[in-house]
Amino acid sequence: MEQPNLIYIDKLARDDESIKKRLVEIIKTEFPREKKEYLQSLENLDYKKIEENVHKLKHKISILGLEKSYEIANEFEHNLRTQKLIDAKRFEKILIAISEYLKTI
Amino acid sequence: MDCIIIDDEETARVIIKTLCDEIGDLTIIDEFPNAIQAIKFLNENEIDLIFLDIHMPDFNGLDFIKALKNPPKIILTTSDTKFAIEAFEYDCIVDYLLKPIEISRFEKAILKAKKQQAIKISNTNSNALDHKNDFYVNIDRRLIKIDLPQIYLIEAKGDYIHIKTEDKNYVVHSTLKKIEEKLPESLFLKVHRSYIINVKKIIDIEDNSVLIKKDVIPVSRSKRPELMKRLDLL
Q1: Which pLDDT score, from 0 to 100, does residue B233 have?
Q2: How high is the pLDDT of residue B19?
Q3: What pLDDT is recorded for position B182?
Q4: pLDDT surpassing 90 at residue B22
Q5: In the listed set B86, B104, B127, which residue is the last one of a domain according to the structure?
Q6: Is the Cα dihedral B232, B224, B147, B177 positive or negative?
Q7: Side-chain half-sphere exposure of B2, counting CA atoms within 13 A
């Protein structure tokens, strides 16, 4: 499985450590909250909410350079419009990978 | 350009702020996690540009645009391509940026926004110049005529602007942005967020300031090239 990275954030921060630090901190705060909301929506089988949650998480996935995972998330979001949860397992693996990565930075 | 950001995701707002800092000449006046708060703000404030997320809970970006009577220029920021065609049906939409926003793509969008703003100001100024060489200001319930070429400096102070002319000074309850739209571009230039000067009245220029009459007026770094270009025309 592909690994999250900070290439986009590094490019954006242009060697400014304070910008990089701030962005990483915000992602570390926002991501667990968004993940929790997603899992809650999943438990409630609230498809509209799940779609919204996946959409929001997609941005974090792309910021962390996970191109293939982004495609999976896209597909998942698309399928959710017809109330299909077939990509949920794959999506959860992405979230776990990000959670693990965020502990290391 | 005065801007606001509307996005329910803090990460996205910080990224846009960072990109704006890179470009310069863009001032983020405020940021909002939802469209409702932004509408309240826009009812009381004028801005040039909005960075707007489409996908927000309750009230999405396109609903937000429909709710505005006189929308400023808007750059859409989204992770979704499905609204692209609909988006360009709105005249106010300058560009459509896909997240994560790349620096070079962001720069292009800002260039587009600046060009459109320049055309708008130029059209307004041309109209103003075609029709009149003076305007009226409301002071203590009196409408007072001011000859435009007589003005040498306009300064913003809180909710008021101070108009300085050869003979007299006037204090008017208005904004610099409103008066800028009434002034001919050939004569006036906003050199700082608080000052508009009559370029024909400049006595001398130093690095970051101009002398007009006895007033030393600061010139923003971003405005200096435009000022120098205008002086070449004199």
Answers
A1: 53
A2: 95
A3: 83
A4: no
A5: B127
A6: positive
A7: 13
- pTM for the predicted model, two decimal places: 0.68
Residue of B9, B18, B103 with shortest CB distance to A59: B9
- Does the beta-carbon distance from B18 to A23 stay under 8 Å? yes
Closest CA to B95 of B79, B111, B82: B111
| Number of domains observed in the structure of chain B | 2
* Residue pair B31/B2 in contact by the 8 Å Cβ criterion: no
pLDDT at residue number B58: 76
User: And the tokens for B3?
Assistant: 């801007």
Q: Which of A6, A31, A41, A59 has the most B C-beta neighbours within 10 Å, making it the best mutation to test the interface with B?
A: A59
Q: Rounded CA gap, B97 and B105, in Å?
A: 8
Dihedral angle sign, alpha carbons of residues B26, B30, B31, B32: negative
Asked, for residue A34, whether it belongs to a domain, the answer is: yes
Mean pLDDT of chain A: 95
Chain A to chain B, count of Cβ pairs less than 8 Å apart?
44
Pairing of the two strands B188-192 and B195-198: antiparallel
Contact B9 A23 (CB under 8 A): no
Contact A55 B19 (CB under 8 A): no
**Chain B residue with minimum CA distance to A63:** B100
Whole domain around residue B70: which residue ranges?
A: 2-127
Contact (CB, 8 A) for B151 and B195? no
Tens digit of pLDDT for each residue in B61-83?
888 998 888 899 999 999 887 77
Please give the average per-residue pLDDT across B14-28, as a whole number.
91
Q: Which of B109, B127, B145 is the last residue of a domain?
A: B127
**Domain match, B59 and B108 both:** yes
Q: Is the CA virtual torsion B68, B72, B73, B75 positive or negative?
A: negative
